[in-house]
Amino acid sequence: MSAEASTDRREFLKDSGKWILLTGAATLAWDFVVEGAPEQAPNYRASDHWWGMIIDIEKCIGCGNCVRACKAENGVPMTDDAFRTWVERYVVMPDEPEKPIVESPNGGYDGFADLKQYGDGAKVFFVPKICNHCAHSPCVQVCPVGATFESPDGVVLVDQTRCLGCRYCVQACPYGCRYIDPRTETVDKCTLCYHRITKGLTTACCETCPTAARQLVDLKDPKDPIHEFMRTHKVNVLKPQMATGAKAYYNGLDGAVR
Amino acid sequence: MSRGIRNYEHVLRMAGLFGTGIVVFLILRWVMVPSDFGVYGFYRAGALKDVAARPIAFAGHDSCAECHGEIVDQRKGTKHEHVNCESCHGPLATHASGDVMKPGKPDLKTVCTPCHKKMDGRPKSQPQVDFKEHSGDAVCTDCHKPHSPKIQQ
Amino acid sequence: MHGVQGFMYPNELELQWSILIVLYPYLTGLVAGAFILASLERVFNVAAVKPTYRLALLTALAFLIVAPLPLQMHLGHPERSWEMYVTPHTTSAMAMFGFVYLWYLMVVLVLEIWLDYRKEIVLTWRSSTGLKKLLYGAMALWSDNISPEALALDHKLGGILTVIGIPSAFMLHGYVGFIFGSIKANPWWSTPLMPIVFLFSAIVSGIAAVMLIYMATCKMRGKKIDMLCVDTIAKYLYYAFIVDFTLEMLDLIHRLYVADESLMALDFMVKTKLFVSQIVIQIILGTLVPLALLASVQLLRWSAETRKVIYATCGMLIMVGIFAMRWNVVIGGQLFSKSFLGYTTYKLDFATKEGLLPALLFLIMPLAILWVLLKLLPPWEDDHSHAGEIRHGSTTGV
C-alpha cells in the first residue's frame, strides 16, 4: 500500500469517525431539546391542535362500549365510584319535565336494564358524560400547586407527581368528572386519551362507539367535521350558565339534562 | 449611642432571625421548583410527556386494516361497516404489535347483547330485539354473520 | 351501599372532604376570634377585658399550632404540601394558606407574645438554672435588656402588631370562607357572604372559647372570676352574635326568596339529612338559645352566680353550635348531587385516618398545648406565689 493510500484511508476513517460522533451527538442533543417539548410523536405540534368532543345524543344507544373501553385503555379503578366517562339514562315524564328520573348503574359499564315500566308517554334517552376539558376550567383555577392544568392543545390534565390529593378540584368541577384514585391517592380524570391523540389515534371511547355518537374533534383543523356539525345542528354544552368554556359539544341535549 | 442601640438590640436579633428564615426559604425554593415548571403555563412541562407515555391498549381500526384487508372488504356496504373492529373484539394493540399472535375470539353468546338487546332509550333506528322472543336459545351467529349481519334470503 | 337516594354522578358517591376539613375552619376560627378579643383591649382600649389579654393570645397560639394538622392528615400526599410554598398557584385561594398561616403564626402571634412577655422571659432566664435557663435564654434570644426604654419600645411595637393583626386575622379565616364561597359549582357554598359569615361565626366562637377558658382556669386555680371582665366579654359576644345571626339569616332568606333551581335540592336536604345538625343543633341550641340568654343578661339583672351559669352554658352551646355550622357547610355541601337529583350519606368511621378519633384528638390537642404554654408563660395577673420569678417587681402592661 502506498503511503498516500494509507493516509487517505486514515483520513476517511477519521472523517467517518467524526461524522458518526457528530451525528450521535446531534441525536443526543436533539433528544435533549425535544425532552422538554410537548411534542409526543415526531410530527405532533401541540399548538396546531385544540381538542374537543362531539357527543350526539340522538345516536347514543347506551351500549356501554365507551365506558368499558375507557377503563381498559386507561387502567381506571374498577370500582363503581371512579369513572373517566360514564353514560346516564334519562326518563322524562311528560307531566314532570323538571324532575327527570336518572340512573347510571355502575356508570353504564354493564349497560342498562330494560325498563318498560314507564309506558309510551315517557321520553327516554342516553347521555354520555365526560370531562369537558373546559377552556376556562374552574378545576384548574383552584388547584393550589399547579398540579392540574390545560395543555397547550386544550386538554385538561393532572400531574401525578405533584398532586397533593387535597380534592379542591373535585369540589370545583361542576360536572363531577374527577375522582380520587385510591392506588395513588391523587386526583385523576379523563385525559382525552392524550397518549393516543398525540399519536394520531382517536380516543378509546370514540374508537369503540358503534354508532359514532362520540367523535374526537380538533377545533383548529379547518377540515374537521366539527365546523360543519356546529353549523347544521343545535349544539349545546352542559351547564352553559357556568361559563366554563366546555368543549364537549352535545347534539340533542334535552333541557332536562343535568 | 450604644445605649440607644442596646434598647432595640433584641428587635434587631429577632429581625435577623426572620431575615435568615427568608433567605433559607428562597434558597429552598430555588432548589425545589422543577426546572421545567412554568414553561407552558403554571405546571411542570414534563407532565405532558408523562401522560403521553401511557402504553396503548386499543390499536385503532387503521391498524387492523393493515393486515386484515379482506375483512374490511367484506364489511363494505354492510350495516356494521362503521362499527370499528375493537368494539366487538376488544383491545388488540398487543396483537397488532405482534406480541400476541392469537387473541381470543369474542364470546358469541354475549357480544351482540350490549348493542342489540331491546332497551328503553335506544333510538328506534337501532335494530334491537328481545333475544328470547327473537331466537330462543340460539346463538346470534347461527343466522347472522358478524361481518355482514344482514341475512341473505 | 353508598346510601344514595335519587341520582348522583358516579364520581360523587363518596364525600371528598371529611370531618377533618370541618375541623380546620373551626380551629382557625377560634384563633381569629381569640385574637379579636385580645385586640379589644390592646387597640380599642376596653380595659375591662385586660385579664384575658394574654390568655387570649396563648389560646390563639395553641389552636394555631394544631390547625394545619387535620389538613395534613387529610391530604393524599402530605409530604408534598411544601409545594404550596414554592409553587403557589395565585388563582387558588387555598394556595395562600401556607403564607397566611406562616405570617399569622410568626409575625402576628409569636412576635406579639414575645414582645409582651419579654420582661418575664428575661427575668425567668436570669433566675433559673440548667435546662430551664437554656430554654428561657433561647426564648429571649439571649438579649437581656429590660430597661424602661426597651420595654416601651416593645409595647409600641406590640401595639402596631395588634393593629396589623386584626386584618391578618380576617385574612386567616376569611380566605377559608372564600375557599367555599368561590366554588360556583356548589350552590350551598357559592355566595359572596361566605367569608363574612365564616369570620363572624369565628369571632363568636373565639370569644366564647376564651371566656370559657378564663372561667375554667379561674375555677381551677381557686381564684375569683372578674365579673366586670366576663360581663364585658359577654356583651361583645352578644353583639358579634347578633351580626353573625343576621348574616346567616340574610343568606337563608335570600335563598328561599330567590328560589332558584338548587333550592329544591337544598330545601329537602335541610328538612331531612341536615335537620338535626342544622335546625336543632346550629340554629335552636347553638344560636337562638344562647342569643336569648345573652339578651336576657343585657336586659335583666341577674345575680353574679346566675350570670356565671348563663355564661358557661352559652359558651358551651356556642362552641357546639359553631362546630355544627362548619359541619353543615362542609358536609352539607357534599350531601347533595351537583345534578340536584339525589343525595348521599356521610359515613363517619371511628378509628380511621379521617374518622372521629383523630378529630377528637385534634380538638383536645390545643388544650394540652395551652396547658404547656400556661406553664411556660403564665398570663396570670393575680399570681403572687412565685415572687422573685415571673412577677418580680412587675407592673405588667400599663
Task: Considering the chains and any ligands shown, give keywords for the structure.
heterotrimer, A: 258 residues, alpha+beta, Alpha-Beta Plaits, four-stranded mixed β-sheet, three-stranded antiparallel β-sheet, 7 helices, 11 strands, 27% helix, B: 153 residues, mainly alpha, 9 helices
Q: N-to-C terminal Cα separation of chain A, in Å? A: 87 Å
- Helical residues, percent of chain C: 55-70%
Determine and state the CATH class of the largest domain in chain A. Alpha Beta
What count of domains describes the coordinates of chain C? Answer: 1
Shape of chain C: globular
Can you characterise this structure?
The complex is a heterotrimer of chains A (258), B (153) and C (398). Chain A is an alpha+beta fold and 258 residues long. Chain A has 2 domains: 1-36; 47-251, Alpha-Beta Plaits. Helices cover 27% and strands 19% of the residues of chain A. Chain A has 7 helices and 11 strands. Chain A has a 4-stranded mixed sheet. Chain A has a 3-stranded antiparallel sheet with strand order 3-2-4, with helices on one face. The longest helix of chain A has 33 residues, at 3-35. Chain A starts with a helix and ends in a 7-residue tail after the last strand. Mean pLDDT of chain A is 88; it is low at 23-39. Chain B is mostly helical and 153 residues long. Chain B has 2 domains: 2-52; 61-142, no CATH class. Chain B has 9 helices and no strands. The relative contact order of chain B is 0.08. The mean pLDDT of chain B is 90. Chain C contains 14 helices and 2 strands; from the N terminus they run E-H-H-H-H-H-H-H-H-H-H-H-H-H-E-H. Chain C has a single domain (5-376), classed as Up-down Bundle (Formate dehydrogenase/DMSO reductase fold), CATH 1.20.1630.10. In chain C, strands 1-2 form a two-stranded antiparallel ribbon. Chain C is mainly α and 398 residues long.
Compact summary:
Chain B is mostly helical.
List the helices and strands and how they pair.
The complex is a heterotrimer of chains A (about 260), B (about 150) and C (about 400).
Chain A: H1 3-35, E1 51-56, H2 65-74, E2 85-92, E3 101-103, E4 123-130, H3 138-142, E5 148-150, E6 156-158, H4 168-172, E7 179-181, E8 186-188, H5 194-197, H6 204-208, E9 214-218, H7 226-232, E10 235-236, E11 248-251
Parallel strand pairs in A: 1-11
Antiparallel strand pairs in A: 1-9, 2-3, 2-4, 5-6, 7-8, 10-11
Chain B: H1 2-7, H2 9-32, H3 46-52, H4 61-67, H5 69-75, H6 85-89, H7 93-96, H8 113-116, H9 131-135
Helix pairs in contact in B: 4-5
Chain C: E1 5-6, H1 19-42, H2 53-66, H3 68-74, H4 83-86, H5 97-127, H6 130-139, H7 148-181, H8 194-221, H9 227-258, H10 261-271, H11 275-299, H12 304-330, H13 332-335, E2 342-343, H14 356-376
Antiparallel strand pairs in C: 1-2
Helix pairs in contact in C: 1-2, 1-3, 1-7, 1-8, 1-12, 1-14, 2-5, 2-8, 2-14, 5-6, 5-7, 7-8, 8-9, 8-12, 9-11, 9-12, 11-12
